[in-house]
């Protein structure tokens, strides 16, 4: 008897709980319909009153619980976005919003809804749903999905958990990336349309019995089924970690990345440069970059990349430039060889440990695509605490003050020494001989007459005499060589105080030839052969600009040093943004000729 009472009490509790849940569900559905009515414009015809189950296009359950089951508002000229409140619609099975003017992304709460049939297709011109379709992967009850003629981007997600899906219509969007193998092996699938997108990789191959529509535009690597070129596969792996950006998919079509793909530069069929700077990229840096074994220059600066710098990049034997500045990178910094110009500035979360041997550079105020060396030529990238920075500033101010004092003192001493020399001339005629240029007459305080000549650049400052000798202008020639190697001007007042004079900066760094890569223009290919030539030219430039004039070579010595290097010259055209395109049309068949032979027409 006691047990019967317990069972009776339990049944009452369960009934009360069921009624409570039903009331909550009805209230949630009513709240959703109220929010949806406010989000859409114009409010659908017939949507008035408190009983939403009687509204046009709305169907509820027939058991009296008034739960929303079907919402059909197709072709009603609706404008607006969908509110993200579908988690409360436990009974919704069909959502039909085709042929409207709707915009925005798919609500994230689709993931926990019970929707089985989803019709959002054919939004009118100038409108359309956008963003990714990633949420479909979590809608495990889906059986039919019509999303064609919208503005969806990004890859097709893994739909392997949608085991009831039999009809998937995704044509006429901007979907990118490789068609996932899980979709091709989905046993429930009967119909699929993927035409008129920007899908990449190999042409998908579905099982027998699946009606597939692939006509129209896509960016598959081949027109028939079969694997892509290994270089294409690597680049698609790289794009995957960026989320398969649309700008890459539109250009990266076909099976030859050296066939005019944007952001990719090749030499003799090998990828040597990738310039992805300032492309608004998100995601992470792919370890697949390490598969591009001939890569020399990699520019990823000024994007929105997160994650860490893959350690595998240190294995790129040909790498000379790596610019990842101005992103959101974090984690440890790999140790790159000294030959690599490594710029990681502008990543506040990047690890505080030293980045190894590569030179850490700071981008200039100009384009980050062509980084300029920082006065700090330390061998690795590192971050400084505010205390260190404050200390450096104080020391810097003190140093500059001392330089000013010493400079003024030295100039005062030299001026008095010069006047004393003028007053006590040792030659018989007491005449000051000044060769070349205009003279100005002057009077000293004691009435002494003097002749004054302004000694220009290359004269008193550099110690040249103005006489026509075999060493004439050899200093200026050395400066020109430095300009060619570094890509800098002889005097650049926009640079920090310790860097404006090219000669002193250049000679200080190349005092040890192991540092030559720190002063070399990034547009030069720093392979072993070119590096040997650049070292010879740099040594000659330093010799020509020796502070002591008698130690400078004559011009014939300079010519003898350079002639063997000229014979190794090969023609190339350098385009903007470091894209090196070989001039096959202009120099076809003449790559084995020297520069002098090309000029003479032989």
From TrEMBL:
Keyword Secreted set for record: no
Example of a GO cellular component annotation carried by this entry: membrane
Superkingdom classification of source: Eukaryota
Segments for region (Disordered): 353-376
Localisation per UniProt entry: Membrane
Record membrane topology: Single-pass membrane protein
Keywords associated with the record: Glycoprotein, Kinase, Leucine-rich repeat, Membrane, Receptor, Repeat, Signal, Transferase, Transmembrane, Transmembrane helix
Protein name as it appears in the record: Receptor-like kinase
Organism: Phaseolus angularis
